[in-house]
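W.,

You were right to be curious about this one. When I first looked at the sequence I had no strong expectations either way, so I just let the prediction run and decided to look at it fresh. Below is the sequence, 362 residues in total, followed by the output.
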Amino acid sequence: MRGEPFGVVLRRIIDAEFGSQEAFAQALGKSAAWVNQLVSGAAASVTYPTVRSLMDAVRSSVMRDELYEAWRSTFAPAPAELPTKAELTEEGIAPFVEGAPHTASMGSIVAMYREAIRLWTGVRSMPDRIDLVFAVGRVVCELCFALGRRGQGLRLAGELEARCREAQYPFGVAHALWLQGLAKQELLRGTSDELYATHKPLRQYLALWRPESEKDRTAHFHLEQSLTRDSGTLAFNLLMAGKGDEAFVQSRLAELQKMNASLSEAVGVSLGKTTEAKLQAALGETDLAWDALTAAAKALPQKSPNDQARFLVQEIRLYLQDRDLPRATRSLSTLHDLTEEHSLLHYKARALELEQALARLS
């Protein structure tokens, strides 16, 4: 079934975030007439690179998702019309890369992994298409992680880093270093400081990287945010596993609070505050944890199913910590409904863990 036309959705997003087509055109570096052609529906087709550039200009993750779905509905081939295997071209690979997280969450992760490996074999040596090499390589690494193949993901991320360095593609290098750090944290068994040091190569690279384009400056900023949040999550996980220490958690919390105080972008504020809530809860500061979670929810009034699930998980943890079992039970029921409706496999696993915690307290 077709949804709203692409032009209608684009007009709504422009009005919400930019106020006028002229302002949107200026942000894109395009003419107002070019934007009007898209909004009015006069464009006979819109390619993936075009919709990608439009999405990059939109701040709201919810609106980016809406725009992509409208593009798929209006211009992309229907699923029945797509080839069984993606062609080794931008138009063939892009829908696969964009759809990989959703398809994997629906339980098709092994099939997605096999197709991603096939595409990686085809594109890994393309000397003049580092964008495709990076896009496919990133998906392969993330699917390896989801399947528990951390060692393979680590090796592929190392190869991806090498390809990006050869092509002088700094964003790709930085992202590959980030993936390697995540893999090492899962593979290594060390102290909190040793695990924290797994991201040292990325920190050093970000300190030396001087991005020239606005897109790269944004990417640099977002990677720095991811590093800070990941370090906070590491501290939380170690403490919950009985392997961390309070001083390490306090240090990561201070870094996180400093970052959160400097942010204005809704998504960044929401993610940062959610991580802060986890750490405050781990330290036994339940009231401060609720304050942080409330700020996280307020920063992101439009929430995707993944956003809703993330908030519910932390909300249930806090209810359990407060021994408010009736509210924990109700929120857990909502989480189950959400994960079933949207096939959110990751949060289904979190819901099971919370069910077990609730049973222990009942």
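Here's what jumped out at me. Residues 78-187 form one domain. And, maybe more interesting for your project: The chain has four domains: 6-76, 78-187, 211-301, 303-362.

Coffee later to discuss?

I.
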